[in-house]
Amino acid sequence: MRCNACSTRRAAADRPHAPRRRPRDARRVRIRLQAIGYTAAMNSPIITTAQAAKILGVSARTAQLWIESGVIPSWKTPGGHRRMYETDVLATLAQGNDIKSPGWEVLVLAPARHHASWTNAFATLNVAGLTCLDNPVAAAVTLGTTVPDMLVVHVETPDDVQPGFLASLREVPVLSRLQIVIATSLPAAQVEAMLGPGLHCKVIQLHGTPDGLPQELAKHSTFKPVTLAPLPPILLDAPFPVGANEPRRLAAVHRSGLLYSAQEETLDNIAQLAALSLSMPVALVSIISEDKQWFKAKVGLDLTETPRHWAFCNHTLLQTGVQEFSELDNDPRFADNPAVADAPHFRYYAGAPITDDWGFALGSLCVIDTKPRQLGDSGRQILDRLARQASREVSRAIRSAGRRK
Length: 405
Hints:
- By secondary structure, the protein is an alpha/beta fold.
- The protein is built from 16 helices and 14 strands.
- The chain folds into 3 domains: 20-98, Multidrug-efflux Transporter Regulator, Chain: A, Domain 2, CATH 1.10.1660; 104-220, Response regulator (Rossmann fold), CATH 3.40.50.2300; 244-404, GAF domain (Beta-Lactamase, 2-Layer Sandwich), CATH 3.30.450.40.
- It has helices spanning 4-14, 24-35, 49-56, 60-68, 86-95, 115-122, 136-146, 163-170, 188-195, 213-220, 233-236, 246-256, 265-277, 313-316, 338-341, 376-404, and strands at residues 46-47, 75-76, 82-85, 104-109, 127-133, 150-155, 179-184, 202-205, 282-288, 292-299, 305-307, 323-326, 348-355, 361-369.
- The strands form 3 sheets. Strands 11-10-9-14-13-12 form a 6-stranded antiparallel beta sheet.
- β13 and β14 (361-369) form a beta hairpin.
């Protein structure tokens, strides 16, 4: 038998917690709603994030992102659960295409040899984050901790289908909105037969590699191709090498939000370690934009940025691993560089790229000296490992900033 008193107490707990009046946030909601004609807002049913997702027809994670970013006004109960007025959700629904949807989080379960291809494929779509794994156990752990919006399973042989694993995901309530895509070169009918009638997955045909997948996903999901700006005029006749993927790299730089961002202790420490362990007077964490080399962390240099054509790192962006240039004054690529020809008269440079989760080189970790020298094998290993650590820190910061938006 239902107890009316208990129901009343539960309803009261769900409402904004303040004696005899609604909290300031709720009052602002009411004022806003009255301004657009929803005068009955305060009598609107109070709903949960899951109920909001159902109304909006999106995943619970997407609804949560909209709520936490302020697209949908909400408050927290004393127990820490998000609540909102149904009227606000309906108002958001009425905005239709005017809603700016947060990017999707995607998990790919595929053989390791295909991870680079998957990364390149998704880099052309409006995806907020991508994780590639080759182990179903690791994938299950990741699904439980991050709850992505989509799981892509790369199927090469019938043994890769794993219908039991996929069926178990459907039994987890928090994954109820997870979209599962099977990408395979096997006949679609064969894969669907192995999945069985009760397991609803989208099957997309692969023709050799995932390179053609973006177009297919754009047809069957809300993914949209990323529109890239053309190469800036300043780079068309640049006095330094520019990669073929420079528009995509620049898009990654601006998407990262690193340019002119606050100092971070972890990157400062990495620059310090590079300088101390390699006995270098200068160590830099640089971010390279269209026309600038900006220093996210620096040791031994007063400048905060230089014109891009001063950057030795232009060459590092195009390669993997450590790039080393000794006797800069005798190298025709660098002899006329203002930092070489004039003070501080640099003579040596070594750097390794700092990359994001997509593999785009955002800048570099480099060390510089005013005299010619060589790192040696151990020195190159130190610089390479520190650059990899800097890449992990940068990627973590980008993901963290994306979740806060």
